[in-house]
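User: Please predict structures.

Assistant: First:
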Amino acid sequence: MGYPDTFEGFMVQSQDDWTNFKKQEFKPKKFQERDIDIQIECCGVCGSDVHTINGGWGEAPMPLCVGHEVVGKAVKVGDGVTTVKVGDRVGVGAQIWSCLECKPCKTDNENYCPKKIDTYGAPYPEDMGGVIAQGGYASHIRAHEYFTFKIPDNIPSEEAAPMMCAGLTTYSPLVRAGVGPGKKVAIVGV
């Protein structure tokens, strides 16, 4: 079939055989007005990917394509998208969707949304296709514009990709704490 009906990814079939990736097609969520299809250029590797596929964090739906440090080019944008246009280089991190209507979403805490969808391994509701979200070790990814970020031209894609995880994880608390010029901080574990 191929794009846009199916995407292709490197997928693990079982946590018992987590080092054996197979290239296969998968069905993306239903395209909606605020969605962006991204043709993936590169995807960083995070420890979370390993913990997910080897069972270190418990069971995960299989087969599964991991990867949440995604950078690529927007190849399709929904009619309601205002932040990205076709051809823009963009990135996606560990979350790909939330309702944007609940209290956590309205207070910039989308990662606590009871309906949130992680970039991989999370089920979409039936009205969005009922599929499992698949990650960035793939040909394409479909993401809501709110969780898709334009990448500045002066940052190479392979350097931007890790910023979609560790970079955001580190930056967000610094902003919340009001850290700025003249303040000292220590970041451990990045």
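Second:
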Amino acid sequence: MALSCLFRIIAATTLFVHAVWCQSYNGLAVTPAMGWDNWNAFGCSVSEDLLLGTAKKIVNYGLRDLGYQYVILDDCWSSGRSSNGTLLPDLTKFPNGMAHVADQIHSMGLRFGMYSSAGYYTCGRYAGSLGHETQDAQTFADWGVDYLKYDNCYNGGQAGTQMLSYNRYDVMSQALNKTGRPILYSLCNWGEDSPWNWAQTMANSWRMSGDIYDSFSRPDVRCPCTGDEGYECALPGFHCSVLNIMNKMASIQSKTQSGAESDMDMLEVGNGGQTDDEYKTHFSMWALNASPLIIGTDIRSMTAASLSIYSNPAVIALNQDAAVSAAIRHWRYYVSDVDEYGMGEISMWTRVLNNSDVAVALVNAGNNSREMNASLAEIFFDNGAARSPQAMMSYDVYDLWAYRMDNATATSVLNGTASPIDTNSTTRYNGTAMSYADGLAMNSTALMGNRTGSVSPLGTLTATVPRHGVGFFRLRAQPVGMKKRDEL
């Protein structure tokens, strides 16, 4: 194997054995990156004021202390190149230059991200970095950049095979490493040429689909692939729905690892195109699949409902779990109650966590609320189903959305009138004061969620799941010999 891997065997008494992580090629993104990017909400309307104003809100709203640390400037920031070829910022948008922006962001305890493309132009038709990788990498390092989103537009035909794409993206990878500055390298090649097969040794994440848009299930001809192809997609496209991207992850589940994660694209929560339940499903499934969590809305005008989704520590704790992996989709069935776009399906996903807890998602993409269930035999199918030792254990069940921050509390956070976070809070958490791993070791209720019942050996997890919603749970094995408690 190309990367140096560390394996941890879970204690034999828990009957879970799994590999926990492979080290990052550059030591970064050991857990998925978290932050904010301007593109989904603002496109090319970027400025110094936008970035610094957003950074202040990230701090004030407690998002930094939840792990959202990267403030990422997307496309359209450049005015071209100087006579010696150096990239220049647009001084009407960034009058004090990029180093000033980076310094200000760093002074708030945050990190600064920037954008370029592995092409002759960026997607917005500004100067790209193809052929200028060494010079541009050094420019980014000199400016104090901590994260590079590297796109795929205008690539001059240097795509179509995995080797062509690998070679083109590896030039920037090597150039960034040679600067000596730690810069997280985020490939944005839309899943073209199967980056999950080659990017782990030269990047920290790779986009695995065409661009997202703010719809839960609406198909769009501009996003022609669905994942049903076994995921060989010649034209990734754009305008891909949440459901489309989620289902594409199913066949490439095994490719995600620590330091090298499949990027399902920026989050749309708060942009107005989906219901609250749809946004909860969107956020939950990105977190469960260890995708980077990059906020894509205007934080400065964020609603209480949106803040409470982005701030759910029980869901973020899954995303930041040390056993970085994507979720297994165990089953998917089409249902007759289709939505207005003719879409209707249900599915069940699981992921084993570092402390041997198991996360379970019951996704209802049908048009009506329904009771959904998953037996322990189904949850532990890969371990031997009903014959597996895991299926013959009892589990406490914790609902990961039960302690979502209420609107009154979220409003007080937005208004700056919230009380300091209490260490016993069930709804708020400070990951700077105590890491997610340490909080889980202490059974923090904010991270565990609300215990709603238990499942007996060979039993079934059951939940009522709303239209386009998710039942999202953490299962924890009960110690052997514990008396049977209330069941779901």
